[in-house]
Amino acid sequence: MSDEHKCPQCGCEHIYQDGGLWVCPECAHEWNEFSTSDTDAASTGDVRDANGNVLSDGDTITVTKDLKVKGSSLVVKSGTKVKNIKLVDGSDGHNIACKISGIGAMNLKSEFVKKS
């Protein structure tokens, strides 16, 4: 099978099409066949959400997975909306700086959010 029929994130060959998106059953990565590849996005500096949409400063996002807050017993629940995000260059992969009500200022990884 060619590379175009593999998951760009984990390399799985068991991908399937769901509407206009391709889905990987192993890592749950979703992408558009006609969008630029993840390597192109990384080279241009674009920050993309879990669905491949380009994020920018001031956007509103929704958390797609329950996230534990490190060093605390708090949890950011799936479905939490976060307004007015700021994109940062996080060397540890946390490339979104935001303020979540009830928790405070924190950084998130773009792979766990979707654009609202």
From TrEMBL:
Residues 6-32 form the Protein YjdM N-terminal domain. It comes from the Bacteria. Residues 47-115 form the Protein YjdM C-terminal domain. Belongs to the YjdM family. This is PhnA protein.
